[in-house]
Amino acid sequence: MLSEPVLQSAEVAGIIRRALEEDGVFNDITTSALVPPDLAGSGVLLAKGTGVIAGLPVVAAVFAQVDARILVEPLVAEGAHVTPGELLARLRGPYASLLRGERVALNLLQRLSGVATMAARAVAAVEGLPVRVVDTRKTTPGLRPLEKYAVRAGGAHNHRYNLADGVLIKDNHLAAMAAQDLGIAEAVQRARAAVPHTIRIEVEVTTLDEVNQALDAHADIILLDNMDPEMMRAAVTRCEGKALTEASGGITLATIRAAAESGVDLISLGALTHSAPALDISLELGLSEGQI
């Protein structure tokens, strides 16, 4: 199973805690009224759609916060491709606690598996080409560490995690520079003077003239925003050996291969996180013999 420190981090524990509080898990009036606390239960997580699994350790962490007596046994690895009817994990513990944690566990597993599935499809679409598929910061507020983990589980890569991770000079930054009668060269110069030498400078451009300006300013990465494949190829030719190139803006699973064939080094897709449909997964619960 893919195991990463982020899944054991205090940040992820806090996400889970807030989700449980939001769902009123510890004040479940229905379960408290109907289910004895010592009634034993079991269950299985079942794939109902075709996709890539991400988040089984998160499921275990959810139930650990609900009730430490619940045991979660994964049956597939993180990043596994699954089909409808495939068993993903077995659970056992107090029936009431399984009921209380069910929705939060499923919400997170379905969401993360959906992101991993979208990432895997994007990677498959550019198979055989020397390009890296990366995500963006267009994540669900509060779920960024988990969604970026899911991108990796699907075989894609992460762009910068947050605004402190790297310099990306975008069109609105350049508009602020233009208001001072300054351009791309001055923007790169200011950014390079303000950050450590270990930080790379990326500039967003929309025309070949701006590509030339970014190259003259010695930008490390040039983001080709909403360019068609023909213009991308021309930009890649100009940048070869001078800067990395990243294609972005309006790229879909249907168009990603054409973008990759232009020769860019990176392709970023906000859709990996903002448009990934949840993978259909169910938790089938039943009673076990005896009491807890």
Notes on the protein architecture:
The chain is α/β, with parallel strands linked by helices and 292 residues long. The protein has two domains: 5-117 and 277-291, Alpha-Beta Complex (Aldehyde Oxidoreductase, domain 3), CATH 3.90.1170; 124-274, TIM Barrel. Helices cover 41% and strands 21% of the residues. It has helices spanning 10-22, 29-34, 56-66, 95-125, 144-153, 171-178, 184-194, 208-216, 229-239, 256-260, 271-274, and strands at 39-47, 51-52, 71-74, 81-82, 87-94, 132-134, 167-169, 201-205, 221-225, 244-248, 266-268, 281-291. The chain has a six-stranded parallel beta sheet. The two termini are 29 Å apart.
Write a short abstract of this structure.
With 292 residues, the protein is of the alpha/beta class. Helices cover 41% and strands 21% of the residues.
What attributes does this structure have?
11 helices, Aldehyde Oxidoreductase, domain 3, 292 residues, elongated, 21% strand, six-stranded parallel sheet, alpha/beta, four-stranded antiparallel sheet, 12 strands, TIM Barrel
- Shape-level CATH architecture of the largest domain: Alpha-Beta Barrel
Low-pLDDT runs of 5+ residues are none
Q: Quick one: biggest sheet?
A: 6 strands, parallel
Q: How many E-type strands?
A: 12
Run of helices and strands: HHEEHEEEHEHEHHEHEHEHEHE
> Per CATH, what is the topology of the largest domain?
TIM Barrel
Per-chain topology:
Blueprint: H1 10-22, H2 29-34, E1 39-47, E2 51-52, H3 56-66, E3 71-74, E4 81-82, E5 87-94, H4 95-125, E6 132-134, H5 144-153, E7 167-169, H6 171-178, H7 184-194, E8 201-205, H8 208-216, E9 221-225, H9 229-239, E10 244-248, H10 256-260, E11 266-268, H11 271-274, E12 281-291
Parallel strand pairs: 6-11, 7-8, 8-9, 9-10, 10-11
Antiparallel strand pairs: 1-5, 1-12, 2-4, 3-5
